Amino acid sequence: MGYNRYIYSDATLKAKAANNKAGLLKNKKRSDIVAYGTELVLSQIKYEPKSYLEYGPYWWAMKKVINARGGNLGDTMDEEIATVYKGSSDEETFTAAFMFMEYYLDFLFNGCRSF
Predict the structure, then answer these.
(1) pLDDT for the residue 109
(2) Average pLDDT, stretch 18-45?
(3) Whole-angstrom Cα distance, residue 11 to residue 111?
(4) CA 69 from centre of chain
(5) Contact residues for 89 (Cβ-Cβ < 8 A; gap 6+)
(6) Which residues fall within 8 angstroms of residue 105, CB to CB, at 6 or more apart?
(7) Which candidate, 44, 45, 42, places its Cα nearest to that of 66?
């Protein structure tokens, strides 16, 4: 199956990740956007377990990163989707996931799981 929807260009992800990192450093005096994003996602999931849907197809790759950092979100995984919907680094994967979340919240119904 060919996947081509919701895939951001490498240039877009690189620029957005750099911008996010600079903003985090300026506003929170932190530079690890993956650690910060992990904290946000884990607290969000704890509060509303189905909020993982907001990350759409990027959820699986982001979940892998979170689990690798000790997040313990379980073993269920869609490897095919995780391989396609990710950035070239963990920072870019989180950037893409949060970009998709913005799209999801603006244009899709809460609870939507078809992309």
Answers:
(1) 65
(2) 95
(3) 30
(4) 14
(5) 17
(6) 54
(7) 42
Which two tokens mark 98?
């949060």
pTM for the model: 0.90
What average pLDDT does this structure show over 67-72? 94
| Mean pLDDT of the chain, nearest integer | 92
- Alpha-carbon distances, residue 7 vs 13, 55, 81, 95, 101 (angstroms): 10, 13, 11, 12, 13
Tokens of 30: 């932190």
List of residues 6+ apart from 79 with CB closer than 8 A: 60
Amino acid letter, residue 20 = N
pLDDT level of residue 114 (50, 70, 90 thresholds)? low
